[in-house]
Write a structure and sequence with these properties.
The chain has 143 residues and is α/β, with parallel strands linked by helices. Helices cover 41% and strands 15% of the residues. The mean pLDDT is 92.
C-alpha cells in the first residue's frame, strides 16, 4: 500500500519531496505522479492502470497548478468516484491566493498548505503532515 501519492508536475519540487521523504526516517511509502490525468487513472484503475491492482493511498498530496487536468479538476473526479471519494486530500501549492484556496475547498480538499520557501521548512512541514495524516488521523476504510 502507498502511504502518500504526490501529484506534482514541477521536477524540482518532486525531487525535493523525494529527498525529504527519504530523510524522515519513518516507515513510509510514496509515489510521485506528474499529471492530473495520470493521478485520476491511477486512483480509479483506468487507462494505463487498468487491470493493475493499485492500492489507494492513505493521503493524496496534490499540487493545484498542474499541466492538463488541474488539481481542482483532479479533486472533482476523485470526490465524484465511489471508490476514491474518502481519500484525504491536502492541496500543496505555492499559491496563497484566496481564490485558489476557496476553489480547492469547494472541490473537496481536506486541507490547504502553502509550500514553504526553504528546504528545511519543507522538511518540517512534511514531517508534521506525516504525523497528523498518517499517524494521528482516523480514516474510514474506503475500498
Amino acid at each position: 500500500m502507498v502511504d502518500v501519492l504526490y501529484v506534482e508536475d514541477n521536477a524540482n519540487d518532486a525531487d525535493i519531496f523525494n529527498r525529504l521523504m527519504r530523510k524522515l526516517n519513518r516507515p513510509i511509502s510514496f509515489t510521485i505522479l506528474t499529471t492530473g490525468s495520470e493521478a485520476v487513472e491511477y486512483l480509479t484503475g483506468q487507462g494505463r492502470y487498468e487491470n493493475q491492482p493499485t492500492a489507494l493511498p492513505k493521503l493524496l498530496l496534490l499540487d493545484l497548478n498542474l499541466t492538463g487536468l488541474s488539481g481542482v479538476e483532479v479533486m472533482e473526479h476523485i470526490r465524484s468516484n465511489e471508490r476514491t471519494r474518502f481519500i484525504p486530500i491536502v492541496a500543496f501549492s505555492t499559491s496563497d491566493s484566496p481564490t485558489d484556496i476557496r476553489s480547492a475547498y469547494e472541490a473537496g480538499v481536506n486541507a490547504y498548505v502553502v509550500k514553504p520557501g526553504s528546504y528545511p521548512a519543507t522538511g518540517l512541514l512534511l514531517s508534521r503532515l506525516y504525523d497528523f495524516w498518517l499517524q494521528d488521523n482516523t480514516r474510514t476504510h474506503y475500498r
